[in-house]
Amino acid sequence: MNRTAIKKMILCAIFAGLAFVLNTFVYFPAMAPFQHFVDVLATVFLGPWYACASAFICGVLRMMSGRTIQAITGAVFGPILGGLLYKKTKNIYLVFLGEVVGTGLFGALASYPLMKLFYSLDVQNPLYYIPFYTPSAVVGGAMGVAVLIMFKKSGVLERMLNEMK
């Protein structure tokens, strides 16, 4: 295993822990904006797959703390879509767009059948979760982009990305 993979695994675990702690102690009813904040950062620093792994680990930890399967479905699609867009364009704003669409649309749609299957919660409409997921992704994604812009202006972002190589 090379050094880059080890660095990415360690940072993946750190991001998962950070998201878990922030979501546990800074709580908004039916929202987890800090998951999306961390997802945006992880996506830029780690790429789509490690960022997805980080979100998945955090989601599992949140489920172990009493949350539903939505802790996973609301977290994993944003980093994948945002990460693929960032990988292709290197545009921070497209990470935000990917996070919002991935979470607000794909994550919300994935939650419907899983909530019905595992929790017998039938809300009668597959679009039910979109209004809950989208604002959370917008708020958290915007916070993540704001931090990345500050890092970029100060030159820290480039140094940190070079460290990951």
How far the N terminus sits from the C terminus, by CA atoms, comes to: 14 Å
| Shape summary | globular
Order of helices and strands: HHHHHHH
Largest sheet: none
Radius of gyration: 15 Å
Structural class label = mainly alpha
Q: Count of DSSP helices? A: 7
The low-pLDDT segments are none
The beta-strand count equals: 0
Helix fraction bin = over 70%
Our estimate of the beta-strand percent is under 5%
Q: How does this structure look, described?
A:
The radius of gyration is 15 Å and the shape is globular. The longest helix is centred in the middle third of the chain and has 28 residues, at 92-119. With 165 residues, it is mainly α. The protein has helices spanning 3-25, 33-46, 48-64, 70-89, 92-119, 130-154, 156-163. The chain contains seven helices and no strands. The model has no long low-confidence stretch (mean pLDDT 93). Helix 2 (33-46) packs parallel to helix 4 (70-89) and helix 5 (92-119) packs antiparallel against helix 6.
